[in-house]
Amino acid sequence: MSLVANTGKLAGRTLFITGASRGIGKAIALKAAKDGANVVIAAKTAEPHPKLPGTIYTAAEEIEALGGKALPCIVDVRDEKAVQKAIDEAVKKFNGIDILINNASAISLTDTASTDMKRYDLMHSINTRGTFLASKLCLPHLKNSSHAHILNLSPPLNMNPFWFATHVAYTMAKYGMSMCVLGMSQEFKPFNIGVNALWPMTAVGTAAIAMLTGGDVSTSRKPEVVSDAAYFMLCQDPKTYTGNFAIDEDVLKKAGVTDLTPYACDPSNIDNLLPDFFLDVPGSPSAQAAKKEGKPEGQIPTLFAAIGKSLSSDLVKKTQAIYQFNVKGKEEGVWHIDLKNGDGACGQGEPKNPPDATLTMDSGNFSDMFAGKLKPATAFMMGKLKIKGDLQKAMKLEKMMKSLQKK
Q: How far is CA 213 from CA 192, 203, 399, in A?
C-alpha cells in the first residue's frame, strides 16, 4: 500500500539501512526496491524471532522480488567492526553507498529510578552512538556520491520538559540522533550530503508495537506512511534539502497526498489516532497534560464491584495475569485483579499472589481507563500510567477491559 508513486529516482542507488529486517526500516527498503535500488539490510535478526516475523534474509527476498538488489548483513550497530565490515561488503558489491538510513533504535519508557544502567547503555549505544558510528563510517563513500543522503528516524528537538519527565533516558537517546542531524547537516554541507530527520505524527503499527500492545494497532498507521515520506525526502536534491526535522504528514502533503485515511490500520479510527512522542500538537500527550481536568470522586469502589461481577474462568484463561493497582490522588489506595487463578478475583489491597504487573496512576485516569475513555497504551505513552513488571501482560488490560465493557 503506497500513495506516493515511484519515480525511478533511486534506481541503481545504494541504501544502507540499519534495522531493516522488519518494521519501518523494511518498509523503506521495499519502497526503494520498486525503483530498482540496491539495499544493504544491516540488522541483527539472522534467525527468526519467536514473536516477531522477519529476518535479514526474508527481507532480502522481498526486496529482490520487487526488482531491487539486496545484501543482507548481520550487524549490531554497537559493534564498530561489524558496521565497517558491512560497509566494506556493500562497497565491494555495489561500488559505493549513496544513502544511509539510521533506523535502528531501542526504547524503554521508564523513569530515572526504574531505568537500569544496562538498559540506559543499550539505548544510548544503539540510538545515539549507533547513528553517529554509521554516519562516520559511511561518510567517505557518501562524499563520492552524486546523490548523498543521511536520514535519521528521530524526532524534532522539542525542549518541553514533559517529554523528559517521564522517560528522560529514552528522550536523551532519541534526541542524540536528532542532534546528529543538527550538527552533520551543517558539517556535511560542503560535501553536498543532505542530512535530515523524519518522525511520524502518529503511532506506527509495526510488529514490535503490536507485540507491546497485545496486538492492538487500531490507533496506529501502517509503516508505509513513513516509508512513502522517506522516499519523497530521499528523492530531493541533497545540495539544498538538508537540516530538516520533518513530520511524515507534512512531507506527504508536499508530495501531493490529500487523504491519509488509507494509511490507517483501522480506517474507522481515523479521528482517534494516537499522537507520537515529542510532538506538541492538539490531542498530543503534552497538550492534554497541560489542561486542567476535574475528576469525579468515589468511583473506584463502585468500579471494582462491577468488575467483580464480570469476572469469569474464560477471562482468566485469556488473560493469565495478576494486576496490582497503586491508585494515587483523591481515591488513593491499593487494589488488585487476579486473572490467573480460578474464576478470577478482585478487591482492595494487594493480591494474594505476586502481581505480574503493578500499575500506578491517578484515580481519575484509572476510572477513565476502565470506562474505555483512556487506553492503557495511550496512558502509558502519556506518562499517566507507570508500569513495573511484565509490560506485555500489562497491555493485555486493554482486551480485558473491552470484555468487561461488553457485559
A: 42, 12, 10
d(C-alpha 325, C-alpha 370), whole Å: 12
Which amino acids are annotated catalytic?
Answer: 170
Please report, for the chain, how many H helices and E strands are present, in that order: 17, 12
**Paired strand residues for 245:** 197
Per-residue pLDDT at 295: 36
Q: Packing angle between helix 300-310 and helix 397-406, nearest 10 degrees? A: 80
Distance in angstroms (rounded) separating the CA atoms of residues 141 and 19: 20
Cell of 189: 554541507
Of residues 331 and 237, more confidently modeled: 237
pLDDT digits (tens, 9 = 90+) for 292-334: 444 334 578 777 877 877 788 888 888 899 999 999 887 888 8
DSSP per-residue letters across 80-140: HHHHHHHHHHHHHHHSS--EEEE---------TTT--HHHHHHHIIIIIIHHHHHHHHHHH
10-24, 277-291, 365-379, range with greatest mean pLDDT = 10-24
Pairing state between β 148-152 and 38-43: unpaired
Dihedral sign (CA 283, 284, 285, 291): negative
Residues in CB range of 286: below 8 A, 6 or more apart:
160, 162, 163, 279, 280
> Which of 75-84, 270-279, 294-303 has the least mean pLDDT?
294-303
Question: Between these two residues, 16 and 52, which has the higher pLDDT value?
Answer: 16
Q: Which three cell numbers stand for residue 106?
A: 531501542
Report how far residue 403's alpha carbon sits from residue 407's, in angstroms, rounded to the nearest whole number: 7
